[in-house]
Each structure stands twice: as structure tokens, then as C-alpha cells.
Amino acid sequence: MAPPAKGELSDAEKELYKAIQTGEVSEARTLLNRVRIDCLDEHGMTPLQHAAYRGNYDLCKLFLECGADPNSHYHDSGYTALMFAGLAGRADVVSLLLEHGASTTAVNSVGRTAAQMAAFVSNHDVVAIINNFLPREEIEYYARPHGLDKEAKLPAPLVGPLYQLVVRTNIHPVRVALWLQEKRELLDQSAKVERVLSLLCEKQMKEAANEMLALKCHHLAFLLRSCAKFVREHPPAPAPEGKKGAGLLEPLIKTWLRGRDEDDFPVLLEKLLRQSVREFPYHECTILQQLVHTLAGVEVGNEPSAISILAEAVRGQKGYDQGASCTACGEPQADKRCSACKSVQYCGPVLPEAALVHAQATLRPPGRRAPGEGARREGGAGGEREARSSREGAGHHNRGGEADDRGFRCKGTCRRRRLQCTRHCHTHQDHLRLRSSDAGGSCNGERH
């Protein structure tokens, strides 16, 4: 079939391109019945490519639902819609195009793929999404019986949650555990899910020759097995009437994040990740050999840590970091800082339990009690007054969006860095007294 001629547009098609430039979705929708969905302008760009270049998710979704070709390559330089979306840095548009069959291996006139074009302009999040993409059909295959199978290896309702897990770009154990905590169905049938992940690992290693995805599937299966084992051995206690219970995996997450006394390094988390690497079954894998070679000479507690190396393997190496990652869960672009040390960064909690996990397990060192906790245990009016003043002080510190929403502040980093304490007071009056004094010294986490 001959390609459509470039630049030969009807009046309605010209109006469609103008609507794309101004971002008018409703106007574009009214014109779709009078245009060719894959018409080409004078440069060989389709309406979908124009929308992808501008990062307009709604227009891209509209055109794809109407049958637009995501792999049109008639552009003067051979660019596809995925390349334009990668250059625009819109992760949501990139994911949408991938879900509708956009090719990740197509190259332009200079032999560059969409991932390479995105990396050229430092859109590393887009690169990670493209490299971690797996067609949904790969998961749906296991939801149907094949050959002599009497039943499918994976129940159909688990296809969606498992697919979301596999295409995640953040494989930090804390983030995965927080996500599994919300997807209880994966934990309830962990044996079947783990088997499918193992089969995906084998397929990616032997058929697709994608070592990165094979290592990722193995890592996810390992974390799922660890979380499911914890749930079996520590069934959650029923929550009091009218109150929400603690997260299913919250105790496990706190255990992972608990640091050692001298430098707060999470030793248990490091050992967990190293065990995951050791259990990878394909020893001839190049990525595995690089991981082992790097970690073998690093003592536990030193850098590079196992999670930093695994993250580079999955998300790709960067020339520089565009933003700090969350100290607790590794989520990129952490936008909050500890109000005391201005050093520890963490992300805004996506899940309800995340704030408590960040505050109690990461921002406050192990063994330290929250302000007012000891007084509440002792009871009495004095305890109530101290607990009330603690809450007031926490609210005061949180002004400006710097501190944690629950009023916890980092004391471990302050202790290491020997910073002058002006924030670890328990009441508003103590805070004012400290700010007006010249008393120095480092914070030891006690009441002033």
C-alpha cells in the first residue's frame, strides 16, 4: 500500500492540525469524522505525532482510540510518535503509546531508537519506562491453559496487578512492599504469582535475551516470597472497632529500614538484596557477573550499596542525578526534606501508611521514642500535657512544608553531622527560647 502523500490536506485536516497546536480536544473530536486519522503534513507528521510532540495525553488517547498508527515512520527524519513523546519527556504519553503497540526498536534516519533519543535530552525516567516495558500479552498468556494444563497458571483477576508490578521502574524493596500491601490478592496467591514471575524470568533470559528484565522478574519474585512468608508467620491482629489497623507489611518494612547505631545504615535491607542477587539462577548472565564483581569488594555499610547497583541495572546509569531519591523507598524526585538536618529527603506518601513508615522507621533512629510517648505510657495529667505540647510543637515545625506531616524529625543525621539543634524542642515556647539563645551543641534526641 502506497504511503499517503505529504502535505495534501483537506480543509478539515488543516483545522485538525490547528486544534492540536492549541490543545483543543473538543474541537479535534468534532473533526475526526471528516479527516484521515493518519494524514501527513508537509513534513510527514501525523496528528498523533504532533500531539505526542506537544505531550498532550488526551489528544494522543483520542487518536489512538480512533485507530491512529503509533508506528508511522513517514517523517522526514524517520521519527515515530514514541520518539516525539520521549523528547517531550512525558512519561504518561510514552506509557500510553507503548500500551497501544508502539515499537521500541524502530530507528530514525541516524539510527537512534526512542530510548536513545530520550536519553540524549536527559529524560531518564522515560528511558526507564521504555526499557522496562513488557507487553501485557506476555502476562495474559499465563491466564489461559495451554497443552496438558487443566487450569491456567495465573488467575485472570491477577493479570492487571501483576502487570503493574512487572512494569514498575522502582524495585526498591520498601516501595514494592508498600505496593503489595495494597494489592493483597498477589500475597494471597503468592505461589502462583511467584511461579509466573519465574517463568517470565526464564523466558526473558532464554528467548528474548533481555538480561535486565530477567533479573528484575527474579528480584520481584524474591521480594514477593519474602513478603508472603512474613504475612504467613505474622498474621495481622484485628484492628479495634472504628480504627484503621496497621499496614500488613509495615512491621517488615520497619525491620528493613532500621539502621545500625553507628551510622544508621540499613544492614538488613542490604543483606536482603545481596541474597536476592546470590539466588539468581543464571550465573552466566553478564549483568549478574557485573553485580557480583562490584559487590564482592564492598563491605556491608559502604557504597556502592546493593540497591544503588540494582537500581542502575533497571533504570539505567545517569551522567548526573536530576534529583535526590527518597531515603526510605528510593522513589526518584523526592520533594521533601527533614526540617532539622535539611539533608534527609523523602517523597510525599502515596499510600496512607507511607508517612508513618517514613517517620518512624527512617527519620527517627531505632530505640528513640516519639515526643510524649514516654509520658503517655506513665499516664496522668502530666502525660496528657506533654503529649498535647508535643503535638503543638510538631504542628509548629511543619509550617512551610519542610517537615513530615506527622511531626517526626530526623535525629540520626543531626547526631552524625553535629548540627546545632534549633528544631528538636517539644513545645512552641522551647523553640522560641532556643532560637533566641546562642547555646550550641549537637542534638542527642532528648528534651531540651
Automatic annotation (TrEMBL):
SUPFAM superfamilies referenced in this protein's UniProt entry, alphabetically: Ankyrin repeat
Compositionally biased residues, Basic and acidic residues: 370-402
Keywords tagged on the record: ANK repeat, Exocytosis, Membrane, Neurotoxin, Presynaptic neurotoxin, Target cell membrane, Target membrane, Toxin
Record has Membrane as a keyword: yes
Ranges of the ANK repeats in the UniProt entry: 43-75, 77-109
InterPro entries attached to this UniProt entry: Ankyrin-MYND_dom_contain_2, Ankyrin_rpt, Ankyrin_rpt-contain_sf
Membrane listed as a keyword: yes
GO cellular component terms attached to this protein's record: host cell presynaptic membrane; other organism cell membrane
Positions of the UniProt region annotated as Disordered: 362-402
Record's protein name: Ankyrin repeat and MYND domain-containing protein 2
Species, as recorded: Haemaphysalis longicornis (Bush tick)
Lineage of source species: Eukaryota, Metazoa, Ecdysozoa, Arthropoda, Chelicerata
